[in-house]
Amino acid sequence: MTIIDLFSILPVLVLVVWALFLLLADLWASRKLPGLTPILAVVGLVCSLVVSIVQVGKPQSSFGGMIHVDGFSVFLNILFAITGIAAVALAYESFKNLKIQRGEYYVLLLFSLSGMMLMGAAGDLIVIFLALELLSIPLYIMAGMDFNRLESKEASLKYLLLGTFASAIVLFGTAFIYGAAQTTNLYEIALAVSLAEINWTLFIIGAALLVVGFGFKVAAVPFHTWTPDVYHGAPSSVTAFMAVGAKAAGFAALIRVFSLDFTILSENLTAVFWALAVLTMIVGNFTALAQKNLKRMLAYSSIAHAGYILMAFVAFGNEAVRVDSIASALFYLAAYAATSIGAWAVLIAVEREDASRNEIEHLAGLGKAAPLLAAAMTVFMLSFTGIPVTLGFWGKFYLFRTAIQGGNIILAVIGLLTSLVSAYYYLRVVVKMYFQEGDVKVNQKGWSLVVAVVAALIVLGLAFIPELLYKFAASSLIIG
């Protein structure tokens, strides 16, 4: 291993080594200082974040082209690290309320984050598969962390079975592509494709299998069936982390692979991603209309937002707007991350010790009982809808603009119409909080309040300077 190799994986290495240290430290701290483990987890995440920031503007390839440090991977590493810090804060409060404080959760979270970071930097299909397993296996366990509830165990089992099936599909896709190009290195595959030195039948089958496997991770229709039950059954803090981290990692793999290898199939892939985007937006939004449980509503909302991000892949088929399409996807991922984490923080603040009272009707009266939390939730619902003066508005604006520039006007219209549909169930939450009386009991002194307020400030603050985040996303596209 050279110094360049070491530097390229340093953010991941920091998390892995720190997770192993944390596993040993928790044996002592769990009894004497139960709050020390999450604090140490945050320290490790901050160190990884600092290392990632240091890597800005220093692209390099290492491990024989298997790892690539570029603006794309650094952008995602920063997003993952910040998400992890918020997830630790939410988990500490949520698990304390549920009386299931377990230090191994934070170890699993760090391992999962290391897999997510590795996914964004992978330059080889084998590394992508290993990263997929590294991020997924801890999530299977984390989903069942609330051992006292049958729903949590059920969520863990369902996620394990379906996730294993999806991983097998990715592995089969990798095998087919290796058979087609005689290599699993993304850049060598791209070279073989440009020289037409591949077996096209095997290549197309492999590409289709990869779309299916990654489609499961991003919860795109029709690979979304696991999402509502897992989101509902898992502890809310786990779901908050999963909704952002796993989705971003899945899209990282999609962008990394399809920006390099399958551009020659862009015409055919455009039709595929067009259909996936439309189905995901329609099914996610219309099914969310019927939900009375807030966790399930947010689950279907997550599915719908995956459809919006898939719009960027449709525009990706047009080379003239390819950079803008990927930048739009990254911008939307960042906007969705801040909004989603904040919404889950509010939900955790109103949940009871038995993980109940997460129905939408249980938010009634929140405007009077906890004005700050209600105001933050209003910001998140408006951002999800895509209403101006929120970061979500700019996220959809950039996606729709890219779709129109790529000649997909019908897709942009469908996205706009489904956004109007989503306004009903998002604004229903606002109406419940401010215009209906209730006996909601809220924890207004925990970390959930801090996370919610900070997230709301980010969603509002960056909405006034969206070009900074967009330019950062666009400048990160040194892919290759």
Topology:
Elements: H1 3-8, H2 10-32, H3 36-54, E1 60-62, E2 67-69, H4 71-98, H5 104-121, H6 125-143, H7 150-181, H8 186-194, H9 200-217, H10 227-233, H11 236-258, H12 266-288, H13 294-315, H14 322-350, H15 366-369, H16 371-385, H17 391-405, H18 409-435, H19 447-461, H20 466-475
Antiparallel strand pairs: 1-2
Strand content: under 5%
Q: Summarize the main sheet.
A: 2 strands, antiparallel
Task: Provide mean pLDDT, rounded.
Answer: 88
Residue share in helices?
A: over 70%
Instruction: Give the number of helices.
Output: 20
Identify the strand order in the major beta sheet. 1-2
Shape field:
globular
In short:
Helix content is 75%, strand content 1%. It is mostly helical and 480 residues long.
What would you note in describing this structure?
There is one protein chain. The protein is built from 20 helices and two strands. Helix 2 (10-32) packs antiparallel against helix 5 (104-121) and helix 4 runs parallel beside helix 14 (322-350). It has a two-stranded antiparallel ribbon. It has helices at residues 3-8, 10-32, 36-54, 71-98, 104-121, 125-143, 150-181, 186-194, 200-217, 227-233, 236-258, 266-288, 294-315, 322-350, 366-369, 371-385, 391-405, 409-435, 447-461, 466-475, and strands at residues 60-62, 67-69. The protein is globular. It has a domain at 265-480. The longest helix has 32 residues, at 150-181. The protein has 480 residues and is mainly alpha-helical.
